[in-house]
Write a structure and sequence with these properties.
Blueprint (H helix, E strand, L loop, with lengths): L1 H10 L1 H5 L6 H13 L7 H25 L14 H27 L4 H27 L4 H39 L1
């Protein structure tokens, strides 16, 4: 059988090698379009490319925003005015950081309620807004004593508030510990 098939192919070789009739490929393509037309409604590749493009644009926009937005390091500090002011600023910021560490520890120990936590977060946000405003003013007027004094008063007020709250919470903690010891 194989030999017969091979013999027929060799005898009709010229018929197999001729070009397709005119318009054959157009008719074939139109039949394919009709057959797969319902599949083209949801072109998955197109939507994936669109989503990737949107994601790229969003990420690029975020990178540009981060590049152009001033960072905390770009904003002026009292250390840019003089070394003495820089030392004072360092004292206040390190004391504030230490107070916040104590706050975090008291929070972990369970002595701070959800309402107190929200109140402190709100206070810190207000202090951050004031600090940003003062830093803008310091950038505009680096030699203005009023702005420098306002920054120093800001640090003193923030440290006082944090210290007062921490001390009150420590008193509450101490009272709870004493109360619990007498209950045993």
């Amino acid at each position: 059988m194989n030999d017969l098939l091979e013999k027929i192919i060799r005898e009709n070789k010229d018929a197999f090698e001729e070009d397709a009739p005119l318009g054959h490929f157009d008719r074939f393509e139109s039949k394919l379009d009709k057959e797969f037309k319902h599949r083209n409604r949801f072109n998955r590749k197109f939507y994936l490319q669109l989503a990737a493009s949107l994601l790229f644009v969003l990420l690029l926009g975020n990178q540009v925003r981060m590049y152009l937005a001033p960072t905390q390091a770009d904003l002026p500090t009292l250390a840019s005015v003089s070394a003495e002011y820089g030392e004072v600023e360092y004292y206040f910021t390190s004391s504030i950081d230490q107070g916040m560490q104590e706050w975090d520890q008291l929070s972990k120990d369970g002595f701070i309620s959800e309402a107190d936590q929200k109140m402190m977060t709100k206070e810190l946000e207000e202090f951050d807004q004031i600090q940003a405003q003062l830093q803008k003013e310091l950038e505009a007027n680096p030699d203005d004593e009023r702005v420098i004094n306002a920054m120093l008063e800001y640090y003193q007020a923030k440290l006082s508030v944090i210290t007062l709250i921490i001390e009150k919470l420590k008193e509450v903690k101490h009272q709870k510990m004493i109360h619990n010891e007498t209950q045993i």
